[in-house]
Fold this sequence. Notes:
Helix content is 69%, strand content 2%. The protein is an all-alpha fold and 363 residues long. The longest helix is centred in the first third of the chain and has 112 residues, at 43-154.
Amino acid sequence: MSDKKDLEAEPTPEDPKTPDTPDTSVTPGSSEPVDKPAKPSRLWPVMAFLLIGLIAAAGGGAGWYFDQRLNEQAVVQQNLVSDVQQQLGEMAGRVTVLNQALESRLEGVARLENRVDDLRDALSQQAEESEETNWQEAEAAWLARLAINRLRFNADYEGALEALKTADGLLAEMGGAGIDGRAAIAEAVDRVLQADRPETPLITQGLTALAERLDALPLAQDIEPTAGSAEPLAETEPTPTGAWERVQRAWSRFVAGLEGLVVVSRDRTVVPLPDPEERFLLQQTLQMKVESARLAALVGDAEVYDAALVQIDGWVGAYFDTLAPEVVDVRERISELRERIVVAEPPNIQGPLQGLVNAIGDE
């Protein structure tokens, strides 16, 4: 039986028919061949089983493969998620750092803007101060030149000092910028204070006091004519009736007395005054000489000033009692007035002030 099954299971190679080959034998009495039913093949189950096994193996392998792939994808995805989270954390940290840096930059920009505003305000204030400083320096320079001209052309020492004082006050408001100018002004003020200056106010006061004392001086006493002196006027001379005639007569007699009437009294030579009219003319002449001396002092003419005082002293010594205290005091005043400074060379203040004057141009 087993042998028979084996023979049925395994076809021999000599069998030309295969399960797929139809039987084309011709039945008797028919001209057409008749198909014989094929014998069922026994390899199909095996092949199906093998196919199923292959499919199962393939499915298992595919499942295992896909499972591995899924595991790998899960690992990759997990790693990716971890990386993404790490990167997100790093990015968050960087964003935080950038925000802090941005805030710091914004604070820096704000501080810079504030600094710019402060600098703008400082520059504006400095420009205003510079403009004011330039104005003050220019005014101080103008005052310095004014002081130079007052000394040079008018000998006005007080006016020059006042101008320099005002200029120094302007430069003092400038602070350190006006130090050089103030040093120059200080040197110029020292030169003005140390220089000899005309004593015009003292001279004017002294001449006024002298003029007031001349009218009260006592005339020389005990005057007697000397030999060879001029004869007195004739008694037959008509008596003047008008005021102008009396003045002319007195002036003529005064001139005649100056020319020839000389007497000696108390060991000195005097010219007598015959009547009060001649004394009046003498007083007027002395007052005119005082005014001449005053005018000479004002214009700075030292020669005319001294000559007028010398002539006043000579007339006082000739016509008045030189031993009387009033006359002695007047002559002492005349001596003091002659020692007063009428004219003096102004100090040179242009040298130290030249640098300051150059601020508005040379003279």
